[in-house]
Amino acid sequence: MSLLLSIHESSNLRLCFSFCWNINSCPICKLKMSDIRNFSLESVSSVLHYPCNNEIRGCSHYMKLEECAEHHQICDYRNYRCMFDKYCSWQGTRDTLKKHYVDKHDNNVLIGNENVCLWKQDKPDYTVYLMMAFDELFYVHIRLRDGIMYWVIQYIGRPEDVILYCFEIQIFTDQFNDRKLEFSEICHDDVMENVDDIIDSGFCVAVPMSVLETYINDEGAVFYKIEIKQA
């Protein structure tokens, strides 16, 4: 077999290796599958370079078979789901993310690198915002878990660029001008979708509710300022 396979053939090979042990016949030649591995074909597949699954969207990256899974996880052209997916089924590429949130979830959009927000005791245990700063997009997660309030910020972009940004949280009250708490933390990339996994890593802002409650005003609200900075 020649190693000079067309893109179409290499895509078929990729399909074959992805599913060959889950089907009864070969999807290409239709012959019955056996329990004997085809080492020759596996050797061929290991030297080929495959196009990204998002090639039709503009990704021009080619990679070896063992690199496919990692690339597809961080590909600039991959699909993003809406963070409000409990009631919003939208999916789209990164360049359409901003328009979706502005059009459909504008109450959860923060503009500028500094924003003052408030938290009230009747708010849900988890809130997420899309924040626009430095011509970039960020997810801001506020999560109440096990009596602790957490703040996590994810940079929406290339994972290697996340080191360019960090954030600060300042908690204050409108009743005492000289009382405030300030925290600084790194931003995370957008590859990890479960915010609880980021919280479990320890790289987040964490404030016990017993402390946060001392900043609650007469209206039952706590003010906090989110600032994204260039590192």
Concise account of the structure shown:
By secondary structure, the chain is of the alpha+beta class. 21% of the residues lie in helices and 32% in strands.
General description of the model:
- The termini are far apart.
- The protein has 231 residues and is an alpha+beta fold.
- Strands 5-7-8-9-12 form a 5-stranded mixed beta sheet. It has a 4-stranded antiparallel beta sheet with strand order 6-13-10-11, with no helix packed on it.
- Helices cover 21% and strands 32% of the residues.
- The N terminus is likely disordered.
- The longest helix has 13 residues.
- 16% of the residues are buried.
- It is elongated, with a radius of gyration of 24 Å.
- The protein is built from 6 helices and 13 strands.
Describe the SSE topology.
Blueprint: H1 7-19, H2 39-47, E1 50-51, E2 62-63, H3 68-74, E3 80-81, E4 91-92, H4 97-104, E5 109-111, E6 114-120, E7 126-133, E8 136-145, E9 148-156, E10 165-172, E11 180-186, H5 195-201, E12 205-208, H6 209-212, E13 221-230
Parallel strand pairs: 5-7
Antiparallel strand pairs: 1-2, 3-4, 6-13, 7-8, 8-9, 9-12, 10-11, 10-13
